[in-house]
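Problem 12. The chain below contains 83 residues. Write out its predicted structure in C-alpha cell notation.
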Amino acid sequence: LGDSRQLADLLDRGIAPDTVDKQGNSLLILAAREGQLDAVDTLLKYRARIDYRNLAGDSALMLAVLRGHAAVAEKLIEAGAAV
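Solution.
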C-alpha cells in the first residue's frame, strides 16, 4: 500500500527484496504497477532485482509504463532497468 517505512522495516528484519507472489510478481513489480514511487525507491536501495519478470513476462518497468506511472518508470530507468 505504499508504506515505505513499514517496507524498509520488514526488509531490515530479513524479508527478501525479491519475494514473489503466486503469479511471480516481485515486490518491485507490485510497487511499480501501483505507482508507489517511495516503495520502488526503497526496494531499489535494498537491491531488488530490477529486471526480474513475472510469470507473464512483465517487468516492473513494463507495468509502470502500461499504468502511466511516469515518475516510477523514470526512477527504474535511472536505476538501470532494461528499456
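Discussion. The CA atoms of residues 31 and 40 lie 6 Å apart. Students who got a different answer should revisit the alignment rule from Section 12.3.
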